[in-house]
Write a structure and sequence with these properties.
It is found in: Cell membrane. This is Chromate transporter. This protein is about 80% helix and about 0% strand. It is mostly helical. The chain has two domains: about 130 residues, no CATH class; about 40 residues, no CATH class. The relative contact order is 0.10.
Length: about 180
């Protein structure tokens, strides 16, 4: 179901631009901000579906979710403007501030700032993770697969792709909704 939009394309671009400009921590830190800012235009269920698809696509999550939200709300031009709005601020920040951070990296205030930002990012990521886990329909098989995957990822980092492929093939062949 396409949402009804009441803002112009420039306002749409501006939402993505300002979110990208003022959100520290990358794409996953932007997810809750996008969810809140677009709550009038897209239902939470649809946002979670878009987030799931954006996470499965290769590339940065911020760009993927911008493409998906932009296309959902405004079509091709929405996707294009959303991507431009998301990528312009980080590119500008890298160009402008990259050399300054390296020059003053031993500054106690700057390193304290980055430690605080790091903690906030972890909190935002766990918030998104909690929202996704809360919406899952947990079955015993899904829980066992999750626990085994976490254990394998911690102890056998080289085997995770192999294990994942086995699980996908098994779920596909048994026609189960894993």
């Amino acid at each position: 179901m396409k949402p009804k939009t009441s803002f112009k394309l420039f306002e749409f671009f501006f939402i993505f631009f300002t979110t990208s400009l003022f959100t520290l921590g990358g794409g996953y830190a932007m997810v809750p901000v996008f969810q809140k800012r677009f709550s009038k235009y897209i239902e939470e269920e649809e946002f979670i579906k878009i987030l799931s698809v954006a996470q499965s696509m290769p590339g940065p999550i911020a760009v993927n979710i911008a493409i998906m939200l932009g296309e959902f709300i405004y079509g091709f031009w929405g996707a294009l403007l959303a991507v431009l709005g998301v990528i312009i601020p980080p590119i500008g920040a890298i160009v402008l501030f990259g050399s300054f951070v390296n020059k003053y990296s031993d500054n106690v205030y700057l390193s304290g700032f980055f430690k605080g930002v790091y903690g906030a990012i972890i909190g935002l990521i766990f918030g998104v993770f909690y929202a996704i886990v809360k919406r899952q329909k947990w079955k015993l098989l899904k829980s066992i697969i999750l626990i085994i995957s976490v254990i394998v990822a911690i102890f056998f980092k080289n085997f995770i792709v192999f294990i994942f492929l086995i699980l996908v093939i098994w779920c596909y062949n048994t026609k189960r909704n894993c």
